[in-house]
Amino acid sequence: MTYFSRISRAFKDAPSIPFDRDSKLILFSDCHRGVGTSNDNFLKNQNLYFAALQHYYELGYHYIELGDGDELWENRYLQPIIEIHSNVFWLLSKFYRSNRLHMLYGNHDIQKKNRKFTKNSCNSYSYTYHHQDIPLLPGITFYSGLILENSEYNLRLYLTHGHQADCLNSTLWPIARFLVRYIWQPIEFFGVLNPTSAAKNNTTKQKTERRLSHWSKSQKKILITGHTHRPMLSEVAYPYYINTGSCIHPRCITGIEIENMCFTLIKWTCGTREDMTLFVQREVLAGPVPIIQ
Predict the structure, then answer these.
(1) Separation CA 184–CA 198 (nearest Å)
(2) Which one, of 290, 156, 155, 153, lies nearest residue 234 by Cα?
(3) For the chain, which domains are there?
(4) Which of 1, 86, 276, 285 has the fewest CB atoms within 10 Å, counting from its CB?
(5) What is the pLDDT of residues 257-282, one digit of tens each?
(6) CA distance 106 to 69
(7) What torsion, rounded to 10 degrees, do the Cα atoms 85, 87, 89, 91 define?
C-alpha cells in the first residue's frame, strides 16, 4: 500500500464533528507523556501544558489531540504514565465529561486503536489516598482520523497524526517500536539520535512533509497533522497542509487554535518579569489565517 492510500484510509471511518464561526478548538499533538524518567520528554513542559489546558478549558475550547499523546513505544503500559501525570489526565477527564475531548492515535500510541486496551487502561485510575478507582475516560474511542465539518461553507478539515506518510512508522510499526524500545532508547544516553524518527532526522522529516503536502494539494483538502514536530502554518498561500508542532520542544509547546473561522499557530512558553519571577505566556507565531479565502 502506498503512503497516499494509507493517508486516505485514515479517514475511511473517521467521525465528523461540526464546527462554525462560534466554535473554539485547540489542537495539540506529540505530547509523548512518559513515566517521569530521564527519557520522559514531556516532563520538562508539563507545567506549560497544564497551564495551557486550564486556559482552554475555562474559555470553553474543545481539545483535540492528534496522536502520540503517550509514549507507548518506550513504555509498555499506560497506567504508570497516568499515575505520573495524574493532574494532566484529571484535566483531560474534565474535557471528556463536558463532551469537549477528541483523541486520535499516532504511531507511538497505536495500541490505543485496540478497544480492549483502552478499556483496560482508560476507564478509571486508582486513587491510592482514598483506596478507590476514579472514572477517567470511560468508553473513550481513539481514532486514526477526524473530520471537522462546516455545513455553511461545505468545508471539511482533515485531521490525522501524519505517520501514515512513512512506511516504517505505519505498516512496519512493530519493527520501529522494537528498534526504539531496545536499541535507540538506551543509546540516547550517549547523544545518538534515532535516524528513523521524522522528528529527529531532517531528511526523514522533509520527505514526510512533502508527502503530506502532496496528498493535501492533490486532494484539495486541508490536512492538519503532527508527527514531524515542526509547526507549520502559511500566512501567504492557501493553507492546504498545516502542522501543530509538538509539546516537547526544548522551551515551549506549540499548537493550532481554530476560532472565528481562522487558524492561529501559537506557542506557550515561560516568560520572566522585571522582578525576576517566572510566568507562563501564550505567543502567536503565525496567523490568524482565515480558513475561507
Answers:
(1) 14
(2) 290
(3) 3-290 (3.60.21.10)
(4) 276
(5) 999 999 999 999 998 888 888 889 99
(6) 8
(7) -150
